[in-house]
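Side project, low priority. Logging it here so it doesn't get lost.
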Amino acid sequence: MNAERDLTRLIAGMRPELDPGRYVFTTVDGPVPAGVAPVVTVAEAEGLTLVVREEEADAASLPYDYVAGRITLRVHSALDAVGLTAAVAGALADAGLSCNVVAGFHHDHLFVEHARGEEALGILERLTTRS
């Protein structure tokens, strides 16, 4: 699959992309409600965590308290690559930005405070050019 493991190449090739949507984290006790298409699910003892578009959560009356922007790192990172999450989260933390990272098979997805999404994107782009 040609997934990248070298940290320098991972950072240089991130090509971060900000999705224009607004995403929320919520939880349900049963199945995913009709009309809701999660981009992430996590099964926990307390319930099924869903990351969904805000408008879908609102339509399904799902509670949430955090609205996030979604940044996809376009580099195909290997699941056993070391350091990418730390580098990205560290750069964002230095700016006072929280970052919830989800690794997919092909890409890493970062959920950051929606209001600061463009700022987060700029930080990641600068990180890319410095490597």
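Brief comment: The two ends are 24 Å apart (CA to CA).
Revisit when time allows.
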